[in-house]
Recover the amino acids of this structure.
């Protein structure tokens, strides 16, 4: 009898574990009330506006102020918001040319319970011509009532021949 009870206990435990695992979702859809997609879209719109206004502080506001916040470069990861900011500083130099920024093709997924993953295309343009474009992925973490970038990986794409910026005359 003990052997049968032991088997039933193991079976019952496996059944309970199976039900619990099945009930857990490893990806949470936007329709579950998180508002992540609209939050990220608004965050990126504000970030592009700050870029276009030349406001480095406001542009950097979407990044978590933590030593583990990372940005992937050709030379490897850069850690910490201040180090990431230093990498962007040249683009915000007073009087220097700065292309306008917009984002396209945003896709957002929420990973429970406090993480978001977003991919999109960035487009830099000047005078009606695209000067740089590429895809990026950002990992976000819910902090308080909002979302902050904890990792950014951007990859520049080659421009089609028709979008190549014109060289300035010498």
């Amino acid at each position: 009898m003990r052997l049968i009870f032991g088997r039933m206990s193991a079976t019952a435990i496996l059944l309970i574990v199976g039900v619990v695992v099945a009930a857990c979702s490893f990806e949470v859809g936007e329709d579950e009330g998180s508002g992540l997609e609209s939050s990220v879209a608004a965050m990126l719109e504000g970030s592009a506006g700050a870029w276009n206004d030349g406001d480095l502080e406001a542009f950097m506001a979407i990044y978590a102020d933590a030593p583990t916040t990372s940005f992937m470069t050709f030379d490897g990861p850069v850690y910490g918001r201040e180090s990431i900011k230093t990498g962007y500083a040249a683009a915000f130099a007073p009087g220097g040319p700065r292309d306008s920024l917009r984002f396209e093709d945003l896709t957002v997924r929420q990973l429970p319970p406090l993480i978001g993953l977003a991919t999109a295309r960035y487009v830099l343009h000047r005078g009606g011509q695209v000067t740089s474009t590429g895809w990026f992925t950002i990992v976000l973490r819910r902090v308080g009532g909002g979302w902050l970038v904890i990792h950014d990986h951007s990859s520049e794409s080659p421009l089609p021949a028709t979008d190549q910026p014109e060289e300035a005359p010498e």
In short: The radius of gyration is 23 Å. Confidence is low (pLDDT under 50) at residues 1-33. The first strand starts at residue 70 and ends at 73.
